[in-house]
Structures are given as structure tokens and as C-alpha cells.
Specification:
heterodimer, A: 111 residues, mainly beta, Immunoglobulin-like, 6-stranded mixed sheet, 5-stranded antiparallel sheet, 11 strands, 54% strand, B: 111 residues, 7-stranded mixed sheet, 4-stranded antiparallel sheet, 0% helix, globular
Chain lengths: 111, 111
């Protein structure tokens, strides 16, 4: 039962442009959402998060948007840099309990 | 600061052989501990989590088991490996907050 879905397995953007990674979820009880970035052969690193009481959280070039009615969140990276090339996982949890991850989206930023 | 270690980094094992992967966390007390598996081209699948010594919850029934003999030590084991056990195994920890922090991972290949 995939409660968190990332329907785009890959995304390619030009350096300097915006990258938009999308994530959908089915469990309306999720109250905390996170994005992780993963390089090959390494563990995921935490990138940014958002609580269900907010609809936007910004940290430098990274902004996460949450649309609770649509059960959708997105990660915007502006401007995109070649070093941003990685696999991005979205994750969701209910009241600090175990986290559910999407399948990931591989972002490639071309110079 | 907190750090998380996993070893070995890579492992090649024959089918039917036993498995023991170790994870330790430094710089924190009574963390929640997690084992995930990332199969090739797939997302992160939660295998086990532990909220305290000797307390293990299993998410997916399979031939793997987990143990937590000490507060900051989490071990993933198998008595007999299957080909389908190949993958990238990740250990993670969290405190009372919702962010999980991942170790560097172990690449397991079962031949």
C-alpha cells in the first residue's frame, strides 16, 4: 500500500532554471512532510520539512509547498545547480510515528 | 553532535549464508532506530523500527530479523539469505522530533 507517491521517476532541467518535484499522498492523517536528497551509494540527507499547519516553507533555494486539500506537496529548487543532481525522496508521517517514503525522483541538472 | 555508523559498507554473500549488519549511533540517548531497504530502482522500504532496548517492531514479514542489544546499537540479521535480499540497507535514527537521520548504508549483493 503506497501511501506516498512520486509519479515522476526522473526530471531533467537546465542549470539556473527551476526544478519542481512533486509528491502525492493518500493518508489524510499525515501531519508532517519531509524531503530528502540522496546521492548514489550514500544515505539520504534531510533537506527541508513542513508541518500540516503550514502551506509553505522556504530555506534558501529550496521551497516546499503543501496543498492539503489536494494531498499534494512539491519541492521547488531555484535556481537549479549541477550539484543538485540526485534522487529526491518525499516522506510523510503521522504524529512523529514511522515515516512513509515515496519511490524517489532522479533530478538531473544540466550545465 | 550526533553521528551514525554502519558496517560493512559493502557485502557479497552466497545464497543461504547468514547476515549480520550493524548500526551504531553516537551523541544521543534512547534514539528511535530504523532499518530500511532500498531495492534497485525502488524507494525506501521500512523493515524494522525500535523505540528502546529489546523493543522491535517489524513492518514487513520476511526472513530478516532485528535486535537492539544496547541503547544505541541496532543489528539486522538473517539466518539464510535469499537472492531477493540484495539491496541497499540503511539505518536511521531520530529523537523525539520527526526528522530521521540516515547512515551511509550497506550495499548487499546475494549471489
Amino acid at each position: 500500500d503506497q501511501q506516498v507517491k512520486q509519479n515522476s521517476p526522473s526530471l531533467s532541467v537546465q542549470e539556473g532554471r527551476i526544478s519542481i518535484l512533486n509528491c502525492d499522498y493518500t493518508n489524510s492523517m499525515f501531519d508532517y512532510f519531509l524531503w530528502y536528497k540522496k546521492y548514489p551509494a550514500e544515505g539520504p540527507t534531510f533537506l527541508i520539512s513542513i508541518s500540516s499547519i503550514k502551506d509553505k516553507n522556504e530555506d534558501g533555494r529550496f521551497t516546499v509547498f503543501l496543498n492539503k486539500s489536494a494531498k499534494h506537496l512539491s519541492l521547488h529548487i531555484v535556481p537549479s545547480q549541477p550539484g543538485d543532481s540526485a534522487v529526491y525522496f518525499c516522506a510523510a508521517s503521522v504524529r512523529n510515528n514511522d515515516m512513509r517514503f515515496g519511490a524517489g525522483t532522479r533530478l538531473t541538472v544540466k550545465p | 553532535s550526533q553521528t551514525i555508523h554502519q558496517w560493512p559498507a559493502t557485502l557479497v554473500q552466497p545464497v543461504g549464508s547468514p547476515l549480520s549488519l550493524e548500526c551504531t549511533v553516537e551523541g544521543t540517548s534512547n534514539p528511535n532506530l530504523y532499518w530500511y531497504r532500498q531495492a534497485a530502482g525502488r524507494g525506501l522500504q521500512l523493515l524494522f523500527y525500535s523505540v528502546g532496548i529489546g523493543q522491535i517492531s517489524s513492518e514487513v514479514p520476511q526472513n530478516l530479523s532485528a535486535s537492539r542489544p544496547q541503547d544505541r546499537q541496532f543489528i539486522l540479521s538473517s539466518k539464510k539469505l535469499l537472492l531477493s535480499d540484495s539491496g541497499f540497507y540503511l539505518c536511521a535514527w531520530s529523537d523525539a522530533g520527526t526528522v530521521q537521520f540516515f547512515g551511509p548504508g550497506t550495499r548487499l549483493t546475494v549471489l
